[in-house]
Fold each of these.
Amino acid sequence: MLVGVPREIFPGERRVALVPAVIPNLKKAGLDVILEAGAGADAGYPDAEYTAKGATLAPDRAEVFAKADVVLQVLCYGSNDETGQADLPLLRRGQVLIGFLRPLGDVHTVQEIAAAGVTSFSVELMPRTTRAQSMDALSSMGTICGYKAVLLAADTLPRLFPMLTTAAGTITPARVLVMGVGVAGLQAIATARRLGALVSAYDLRPAVKEQVQSLGGRFVELAIEAKDAQDAGGYAKAQDESFYQRQRELLGQVVAQQDVVITAAVIPGKRSPILVTKEMVAAMAPGSVIVDLAAERGGNCELTRMEEKVVEHGVTILGSINLASAVPYHASQMYAKNLTNFLLNMVKDGQLNLNMEDEIVRSTLVTRDGEIVNPRIREFFSLPALVTQ
Ligand SMILES: NC(=O)c1ccc[n+]([C@@H]2O[C@H](COP(=O)([O-])OP(=O)(O)OC[C@H]3O[C@@H](n4cnc5c(N)ncnc54)[C@H](O)[C@@H]3O)[C@@H](O)[C@H]2O)c1
C-alpha cells in the first residue's frame, strides 16, 4: 500500500504531514511512502532525509494523488478554504484521505469531498480516550499554539515577563491570564511560568483547577456554575447567553488587572464565546496584549479580527490563526507521529482494515462511497440519518 504526502498548499502553511523519522514504522507495517518533492522543506525536512529513510519522490502533486492509496495532509480541502478545492479533481474513488477537514465547517465542502468518492478521516473528530491520545492531532497542535501564543505576547508586550532585581531597581513580573484551560491553555500557563510571569487562569470546568495549580498558576473562581460544562467526548459544551453575560461581568475585574490575556476557549463547531468585551479591553492598561487563540471561530475577544493586529485603547489584540504552522519542525513531527499511530491502528497485513467496531475509526470516518457517513456530522448539519451504517 502506498501512502502519499503532497506539499501543503494553504498560503503560508509550513508544516508537512509526515516527517522522515516515521517512515521506518510505516515500512515495517508494509506501507511505502511517496512524497511530493519539497513537501518537507519549509518545515526543515529536506527531500534527501525522506529518501534516506526509503521514501520515493514524485516531481509533482498530481502524481502523488494518482499513485497513493492513502493521502495524508495537514490541511485538506475543508480546513484549507483558500486553495484546497484544487485538490478535488485529483482525488480518486476509494482513495483514503486523512487530515484536518474542518468537518463541522461548511456542509457543501464536506459534500464535495463525499462526492469525490474518497474514504475520508478527520483528525478533529478523534475521541478523547486514553487509547486515542497518541493520535490526537488537535492536542498536539494545541500544545504548540499555547506555547507560541505566549512568545507572541512576550514579544509584543512593552514590559518584561520575569521579576528582576537589578542595580537599576526592581522589575515587577508580568501578569498573565489564560482563559480556557484546554491543551493550548495549559501549555500557555506552563510557558508563561517558565518566562517568569505571574499566571492566573480561568475555565468553566472546575476540574481544571488542580491542573492550573500544579503548573504554578492561580485558578480564578467565579461565583457562577456552568451546566454540563463538557460533553461525553470531553469537549466543552455551549452555555446559554445569561451564563455568558454573568461570566463577563465577573471577569471584567480580573481582566483589568492583567498585562497579558491569552484566550483559548473553543466550542467545537460553534462560534467562540465572547469572554473579553470591548469595555473590558478599554479598562486594561495601555500596552497590554491579548492573544486570541479562538480567532478562527470568531474570537473570545469582541475586538478580535482574524489574522489581524488590532490596537484599541492602547491594547494590542492579536487574532493570529494557524500558529502551529509557525513552529513547523516540531508541529510536523508531532502531527506525523499522530497520523502514523492513527493509520497503523487501521492496517493489518499491509492492508487497510476498517473495523467499524473501533470507536477511533467510527468517530473519525467522515465520508465513504460518496456519502457523509458520520452520524455526528449528519446530525450537526441536520441531514437525515443514513439507513445503513
Ligand atoms: N485523549 C484524551 O484523553 C484527551 C485529549 C485531549 C484533551 N483532553 C482533555 O479535554 C479537555 C479539553 O481540552 P481541549 O484542548 O480540547 O479544549 P478545547 O480546545 O475544546 O476548549 C478549550 C477550553 O475552553 C474552555 N471553555 C469553553 N468555553 C468557555 C467559557 N465560556 N469560559 C471559560 N472556559 C471555556 C473549555 O472548558 C476547555 O477547557 C482537557 O481537560 C484536556 O486535558 C483529553
Amino acid sequence: MTNSDLTLVLGGTGKTGRRVAARLRALGRPVRIGSRAADPPFDWDDPATWAAPLAGVGAAYVTYQPDLAFPGAAETVGAFARLAASAGVRRLVLLSGRGEDGALAAERAVAAAGIEWAVVRSAFFMQNFTEDFLADAVAEGMVALPAGTVAEPFVDAEDVADVAVAALTGRVPLGRVYEVTGPRALTFAEAADVVTAAGRAVEYVPVTVDGFVAGAVGAGVPAEVAAPLGQLFATVLDGRNAEPAGGVAEALGRPPRDFAAFAATAWGTR
Ligand SMILES: NC(=O)c1ccc[n+]([C@@H]2O[C@H](COP(=O)([O-])OP(=O)(O)OC[C@H]3O[C@@H](n4cnc5c(N)ncnc54)[C@H](OP(=O)(O)O)[C@@H]3O)[C@@H](O)[C@H]2O)c1
C-alpha cells in the first residue's frame, strides 16, 4: 500500500461521503475523512486547513458545503482543485447538482485543474427525506417546499456513492459527467403518497419561496443560509430537472433504485 492509494473523502461523514468512505474501505483502500470534525480538520471556509488533509493523497471525492449554488462556491472549489493538483493528487471526483449555474462553474473549475476528473451531477437525494433537512418534517407528517407540482427524479445516495466510487477507483471512463437520477420523476405530492403507502403518513404542502424562507428562519436556520436555499429550490425545482438521466446505468450497468424501494426500506414495517 502506498500513499497514492489514499483517498480523501470530503464530507466523509455526510450523506454521500460516508457511503463512499464505507465502500472504499470495503475494497481495502485507505480513506481519510475531510470535515471540520476530522483530524486534521478540513474546513471549506478556512483555506489554511486544506493542505494537511491533502498530504499523500492520490484521489479526492469533493463535496462542497453548504452548496455549489451558494455565492463564491466555484472559486473556492477551483482553488481547492488547483491546490490538490499541486499537492500531487491525481484524480478528483466532484459531487455536483443538476440544473444550477454555480454547480456548472464548479465543474468547469475542477476540469481545468489539469488532473484526472469526473463529475457526479446528481438529482435531489432520496435521503433528504430521512437524513437531512426534511427528516423532521416527515416525522411531523408535513413537508412544505416551494416545488409546486413539479416532478423530480429523486436519486438514492447509495447509487450516487456507487457511481462516485467507480470513478474514484478508475473503473469507469474519466473526464466526463455522470448525470445521476432515479428511474422516474415524482411530484412531491406523489412522493408523499409513496412514503405514506410505505408506512409513514405524510402530506406535501406547496409553499412560496418567501414562505419557505420564513419557515426555515422560524425553525432556526440563519437568514443568510435560508435565503440562498430558497433561491436554490426555486431554481432547481422549476421543472428543468424533471427528466430522468442515465448516469447510474452508464457507470454501473444496472438501473437506479426506485423511490418506492427506498421508502419500503426506510419506513416499511418489514
Ligand atoms: N442534498 C441533495 O439532494 C444534493 C443533490 C445534488 C448535489 N448536492 C450537493 O451535495 C453537496 C453536499 O450536500 P449534502 O446536502 O449532501 O451534505 P452532507 O454530505 O450531508 O454534509 C455533511 C458533511 O459535510 C461536512 N461539512 C459541513 N460543513 C463543512 C465545512 N464548512 N467544511 C468542511 N466540511 C463540512 C460535515 O462534517 P463536519 O460537520 O464535521 O464538518 C459532513 O461530513 C452540496 O455541494 C450540494 O451541492 C446535494
Amino acid sequence: MNQAETSVMTRSGVDATSAAVQRWLESFEAALRDADTSAIAGLFLPDSHWRDLLAFTWSVTPHRGAGQIAQALARTQAATLARGFAIAKNRTAPRRVRRLGTEVIEGIFEFETAVGRGVGVVRLPASEPARAWVLLTSLEELKGFEEKIDARRPTGSAYSRNFGGDNWLDQRIKAQAYLDREPTVLIVGAGQAGLALAARLGQLDVDTLVVEKHERIGDNWRKRYHSLALHNQIHVNHLPYMPFPPTWPKYIPKDMLGDWFEFYASALELNVWTGSEFAGGTYDTAAGQWRAVVRRADGSERVLHPRHLVFANGVSGIPRIPSLPGLDDFAGEVVHSHSFTSGAAWRGKKALVLGTGNSGHDVAQDLHSPGVDTTIIQRGSTTVVSVDPSAKLNYALYDEGLPLDDVDLIATAATYPLIVRGYQLAVERMVELDKDLIANLIARGFKYDLGEDKTGHQMKYRRRGGGYYLDVGCSQLIIDGAIGLLQFDQIDRFVAEGVRLKDGSILPADLLVLATGYYTQRELVRRLLGDAVAERVGEIWGIGPDGEMANMWKRTAQEGLWFMAGSLAQCRIYSKHLALQIKAIEEGLLQSR
Ligand SMILES: Cc1cc2nc3c(=O)[nH]c(=O)nc-3n(C[C@H](O)[C@H](O)[C@H](O)COP(=O)(O)OP(=O)(O)OC[C@H]3O[C@@H](n4cnc5c(N)ncnc54)[C@H](O)[C@@H]3O)c2cc1C
C-alpha cells in the first residue's frame, strides 16, 4: 500500500488505513471469542510484541512471538471476556507512520472486558497489514467506578451554599486530619510520584493520605541545587488532570516546579501531611493492613493502619557516601550533592567534585560560574548527550502534535526489545549530532561510553538511574580546561590540603562535593520495613527478568506494598494503572497478591 492509497476511501466510506485496522480488530475479536490459539497466532508476525497493562493480566506483562502471545491471550481471555474491539472514537485516527525504521499502520482502538473498559494500540506493517507487529492493551477504567471528570464532575452540593453546615474549606480541613478514620492508602513522599498517584486515587474515591518529611510540598525540588532546571521539555512533563500553563518556559526551573506541586496538591484536593516522616511499618497479614508509624513535625507520633502502603519516596533517598582513602585527613568541607545548594559562597576558593553524572556536572558548573576554581573527578565512564538537540530525540513522539493521552498510549506500547532498538536508533543519530562534543571530550581524557548495548543514557536511567550527563554547558568548560578533569585512578589519597596524586603532586581544595549518587529504594525498604520484606520484594527499579521495570507500578511479593517512581511522564502514565489495581482490590475485583 502506498501513501496515495491510504487516503483512498473504500465503498463503506472508511479510508484504507482505518479499514485495515478495522479488519484486523474484527479478526482478532473473532479469534479471541473462539479461544482459537492458531487463529490468534495467525494474526501476529512471528516476531511480534504484546504488552498488557492490566486489561488481560492484571499486571504489566510483556509477551514476544506469535505463539507465546496467542497462548497467553487465549488463556487470559476466559476471565477477561474482552470484546467490542473497534477503532477508538475521539482519538487519533489510524495513520501510516514510521516506527523503528518500519512503515506501519498504527491504530488506537477501544474494547471492554468483564470489569472495565480498555484502549490499545495496534501496529500493522504497511507491507502486510493482516498481521500485527505490536499490540498494546491497557485497562483505562473500571465499570461503575469511572473517574468523576468533565460531565461526571461533582455538583458540589455537599458543600456549596450549605447554609449553617460545613463549607468546602471546613470539609477539607476535617478530611486531612484523619481524626476519626484511617486512610485506605498511605503514600510516602509528595514528589511527582506520590502526588500523581494520590490525584488518581482521589478520582477513584480511595481515601488516600500522603506523608512528606519536608516542611512544604515542592521542597524536594526547591532544596536541590540553585541552577537546576528540568532536562526535558514541558510538554512531556505534565501531571495528570492539570497541565502546566501554556505561558510556562520549555525547561521548568526547580522552584517553579516546586511551587506547582504545592498548587497541584491543593487544586486536586489531596490530603498531604507535610513535616511528617514515615518512620517504619509492619504488615499484619491476618488483618490485611499495615501498622505505619508517622513522626510529625512537633515530634509526636501517629500510628496509622492503611491497607496499602506506597513507597513514592524517591530513588534519591539516601545519599551514597563512598569510602575514600585519607578522607578523614582532609581539612576542607565535604558535602554530598544532595545537600549542595549554590557555589556562590565558595567564590575565590578551590573545589573538587567527585562524580561525572548529571549532578556532578551541574554542581561543577554551578561552582565554576561564580569563580570557584573547580576540578571534576571521574570514576566511571559516562554517557554525555547534548540536552538540545540530542536528548530531545527520545521524545520525538511527543513532537508529532497528537493529544497527550494518545502519545502516552503509543509510547507505552513498546516492550523491552523494542525500547532497546528504539534507543539504539536514537543513539546512532545522537552520536552524529554530538560528534564534535564527544571527540573533544575524549581528546581531553574524559572516559566516554554509550552503555552496554549502545542504548545511551535512557537505558542507563532505566537500568541504574545514572551514569550519564545531559550536557547544558559543562562539557565545553571541561574541554576548554576552564573546569579541571582528574581521573580517580590518578589519586593516591586525600590529605589535609586536598588530594595527593600518584605522581606525588598535591591538588589543593577547600571543598569536596560528593556527587556519588544514592542507595536504591531497596535500601529504603530494608531500613523502614526490615530485611525480610526487602528480601521478599527483591530489586526495585532497574530491569526485571521480563524486561519490565522491576517491581514498579504493579503488585509486589509483599502484600499491600507498592512502588511508584520515575520521570514526570512515567508518573503521569503509570499512576493510573497503579490506582486502578488498588481500586480493584478494594472493590473485590482483584486478589491483593
Ligand atoms: C538536574 C535534574 C533534572 C531532571 N530533569 C527531569 C526532567 O526533565 N523530567 C523528568 O521527568 N525528570 C527529571 N529529573 C528526574 C526526576 O524527575 C526526579 O529525580 C524526581 O524527583 C523523582 O520523583 P519522585 O517523586 O519519584 O521522588 P522525589 O522527588 O525524590 O520525591 C520523594 C519525596 O519523598 C519524601 N520522602 C522520602 N522519604 C520519606 C519518608 N520516610 N517519609 C516522608 N517523606 C519521605 C522526600 O522528602 C521527597 O519529597 C531530573 C532530575 C535532576 C536532578
